Amino acid sequence: MIIVNLNLENTGLELKGLCEKLAEKASQGLIIIVEPREDTLRILTEAVASHMNEDEALAKLAGELNGLVKGIPGDLKRNVETELVESLNRIFEYLHAEKKAGGATPKGLPVMLNLLANTVAKVVSSYLNALGVNAKWVTAGQAGFTLVEDYEPPWSHYVSLVNPDGLKSVSKGVLVISGRSCVDHEGGEALLKKGMGSVVAILAASDLRVGEVYVPKANGGVYTADPWITDKARTIPSLSYSEALELSRLGEWVVSPQAVELAEELGVRILVSSTQDPFKECTTIGFEKAVEKQIVKAVAMIPDMSILTVEGAAMAGTPGVASAILGEIAKRGVSISMISQDASEIGITLLVKDRDLDIALKGLREGFSRQRLVKRVKIQRGVAVISAVGEGMRGTRGVAAKIFSAVAEAGVNVLAIAQGSSETSISFAVSMSDAEKAVKAVHDRVILDV
After folding, report:
1. Alpha helices by DSSP H, 158-315
2. Residue 124: which of 180, 65, 185 has the closest Cα?
3. Is the pTM here over 0.85, yes or no?
4. Which of 11, 104, 153, 387 has its CB 3.0 to 4.6 Å from that of 98, i.e. a possible disulfide?
5. pLDDT digits (tens, 9 = 90+) for 30-57
6. Helices (H) and strands (E) in the chain, counts
């Protein structure tokens, strides 16, 4: 049995060649967990919220779905296109009815999004059938998976395989699973969060005693840096789970951070491959003892950030100040990407997305307007976070010095610094105008050592 996590964020819409390669392994038994692009689902979400008119949304969805069926031959393509039209009609009949009734209900939106996700899975199944493979498709819910709303460890991954017999009963031959289309504990339709299809794949691999999950990418493997920033970027042969977790949090979207954590817990390897050769691993994510020991393996960038510095002499020695500051921001639904605090305790620096800065500022002003702890709040927009990642950094002397020497020699000013508690990453903030120079400096001088 072979398990493949087919996320269209990784592969793009060109499925013909990929499905031909997948079909070659059909005789060994094949489970393909399919996830649509998040932008596709967002089109429907915006239409529900009236941020996009129905005709515009329909046209965009039709364009996206039609892009998937290129390469399906003859009569089968016509049949698939007919299914696409029927699915779109059902989605927009549902949308129109819900909006006419005063807005989409909490249960109505998952139904529509699941229809869309299922349509993408059906297209993949149709490709395989066109290639002479007897493929069937089911939803994740039908395969025995359930959304976990009251999640506690060890089920902190938002989805659980509650019916292993259900998975075993359908996992014969070639099976395509709509990886985001699930059910809740009452059996109602539920849409899993972005990236949860990769969690479904890891859970399926563990239950069926398959030791690895293949994840094809359009450009193959995980790179030492963004190839769009430096043409010297190369594929990383192997990553530890810790390294992969850091990179997934930084936006190197191969599988979700939850899937990496779960893979480590269950001992499942993640084999990142190429869409041109989906069963030849380019990057292996596994246990630390099985990976190479290069000190720094990758450098990643998070663009479009803002620095928010909270200062006040009264903050020094006052218990709970940092907690209160973070709490006021968290209450507004803002995620903090990086934190750095002065040893003197009179200042704390936070990094948030540019789009969240005004909300975070409002939270601080409302939360501390009657207190004298906070004297001033400084902001700086147009910032990027640069992170160097590598298991070998743990306990190795001089790594930070080498990183910051390389950055300084490139003429880049560092605005804030933080190190992860796992000691597998060092992050720092620079202005957006210097971000690419900083990435190239760390990549060339530290990773490649040239």
Report:
1. 164-170, 196-207, 241-249, 257-266
2. 65
3. yes
4. 104
5. 999 999 988 888 888 888 777 778 788 8
6. 14, 18
Type of residue numbered 129: N
Q: Report d(CA 177, CA 34) in Å as an integer.
A: 6
Is 315 a residue whose pLDDT tops 80? no
What does each C-alpha distance from 70 to 23, 39, 126, 385 come to in angstroms?
17, 19, 12, 39
* Token pair belonging to 132: 């002479």
What's the CA gap between 325 and 222, in Å, rounded? Answer: 36
Question: Which two tokens mark 127?
Answer: 């490709």
Q: If DSSP codes are grouped into helix, strand and coil, which group holds residue 174?
A: strand
The average confidence (pLDDT) of the chain is 85
Look up residue 437 and give its amino acid.
K
What gap in Å lies between CA 238 and CA 258, rounded to an integer?
A: 19
Residue the block writes with tokens 């996206």: 64
DSSP state of 393: G
Give residue-wise pLDDT tens across range 102-136. Answer: 555 556 778 888 888 999 999 999 889 988 999 99
The CATH-assigned architecture of domain 2-289 is 3-Layer(aba) Sandwich (3.40)
> What DSSP element (H or E) covers 282?
strand 277-286
- Which residue in the block uniquely carries the two structure tokens 């817990």? 265
| Whole-number Å distance between alpha carbons of 73 and 80 | 10
Question: Using CA atoms, how far apart are residues 179 and 35, in angstroms rounded to an integer?
Answer: 6
Q: Would you list the domain boundaries of the chain?
A: 2-289, 298-447
Domain made up of 298-447: CATH architecture = 2-Layer Sandwich (3.30)
Residue 169, C-beta contacts closer than 8 angstroms, at least 6 positions apart: none
- Which segments within 287-415 are labelled E, that is strand? 298-311, 336-341, 347-353, 376-389
Nearest CA among 322, 216, 326, 235 for reference residue 273 = 216
What distance, in Å, lies between the first and last C-alpha atoms of the chain? 44
State whether the Cα torsion 290-291-294-296 is positive or negative: negative
CA pair distance 365, 404, nearest whole angstrom: 35
Q: How many CB atoms lie within 10 A of CB 106?
A: 6
- pLDDT tens-digit readout, 379-426: 899 999 999 998 888 877 888 899 999 999 999 999 988 876 667 889
d(CA 38, CA 35) in angstroms, rounded, equals 9
